[in-house]
Amino acid sequence: MTTSRQQGQRKPRRRNDELLKGVFEENFPDFLQFMYPNSADLFDLSRGFTFMDKELLEVIPQREQKKGKRIADLLVKVYLKDGTEKWILVNIEIEGGSSKEFPFRFFQYHYRILDRYEVPVESIAVFTGDHRQHRPSLYRHDGIRTSIEFRYLSYHIFDNSEEELLKTDNIFGYIVLACQKALLEGRVAEEELAEHRSTIARALIGSKKYDKDRIISFLGFLKNFLFIEDKQINRIFDSYIYQVTGGTIDMGVIEILKKQERQAGIKQGIEKERARAEAEKLAEKLDSALEFKKMGVAIADIAKALGLTVEQVNAL
């Protein structure tokens, strides 16, 4: 097994932003209940809710997403009990970001949605860094006799203790706890990280609130998010799930998780092979283009014949 010394020398794995975004989406009603204790009186989830990915992309262009790693943001249309529509903007600050420009940036996103779509916007910032992470909840601009004050709901994963999160009986509380423990990766032995992972799994299963499909999905998230390389530790975790449920979640669930992991590995292998083949094909085209270029063939004709751009041929 991995020793503490070995674990301390190993660099922690980068968080998977898309993985976190996915678990927020899948458990969005629980997220609302977690953030708004009176959510049952506020939101009419019987009318459903809609993820506005296209609209969010128009508000936060791809270049901004790449620069600020904003791929974990969410924009969701919900309905209130009074029949009105509201859009909820969720900004997830990943990996301890503490940008001083965040309040202004968040104000920009809020205003862009309001201006473009003319719908009321509820803005929520979720901070997933360590205790030192700055977690602002206000943007203020003062002119001479003009001022702007933008307040929004701000939550940090350490706003609640481990004990409080385990008692929430809300799957989102367990997600928050997983975010807390993920910060330990690379700092503690994998055995200790495994203990935390098992504690969270036991809390979820013990709540008796979620069906088998939700449990399977969450366990898949948990195994990937609190990532452990040691295969023996992972086998122990699989067996532990079976034991702790007393057969409620049978080994078939574990097999489903393993099958999902295998399929993910196969898909990744296929994508790598496809990328390799495309790279080889492009290299062959570029070699041919270079030969034609040396022969004096017009660049535009070379590009058209080989399916390349003029820029690619010019660069040779």
**Helical residue percent?**
55-70%
Give the N-terminus to C-terminus distance in angstroms: 51 Å
Give the low-pLDDT segments: 1-14
User: Main sheet: which strands, in order across?
Assistant: 1-2-3-4-7
What count of helical segments does DSSP give? 15
Q: Report the major sheet.
A: 5 strands, mixed
- The averaged pLDDT comes out at 81
What is the string of SSEs from the N terminus onward? HHHHEHHEEHEEEEHHHHHHHH
Give the SSE map.
Elements: H1 4-9, H2 17-26, H3 28-35, H4 39-42, E1 50-51, H5 53-59, H6 62-68, E2 74-79, E3 85-93, H7 102-117, E4 121-127, E5 138-142, E6 147-151, E7 153-156, H8 162-166, H9 171-182, H10 190-206, H11 212-225, H12 231-244, H13 251-294, H14 299-306, H15 310-314
Parallel strand pairs: 3-4, 4-7
Antiparallel strand pairs: 1-2, 2-3, 5-6
What does this 3D model show about the protein?
- There is one protein chain.
- The chain has helices spanning 4-9, 17-26, 28-35, 39-42, 53-59, 62-68, 102-117, 162-166, 171-182, 190-206, 212-225, 231-244, 251-294, 299-306, 310-314; strands spanning 50-51, 74-79, 85-93, 121-127, 138-142, 147-151, 153-156.
- The protein has 316 residues and is α/β, with parallel strands linked by helices.
- Among the domains are: 13-159, no CATH class; 262-314.
- It has a 5-stranded mixed beta sheet. It has a two-stranded antiparallel ribbon with strand order 5-6.
- A hairpin with a 4-residue loop joins strand 5 and strand 6 (147-151).
- It starts with a helix and ends with a helix.
- This is Rpn family recombination-promoting nuclease/putative transposase.
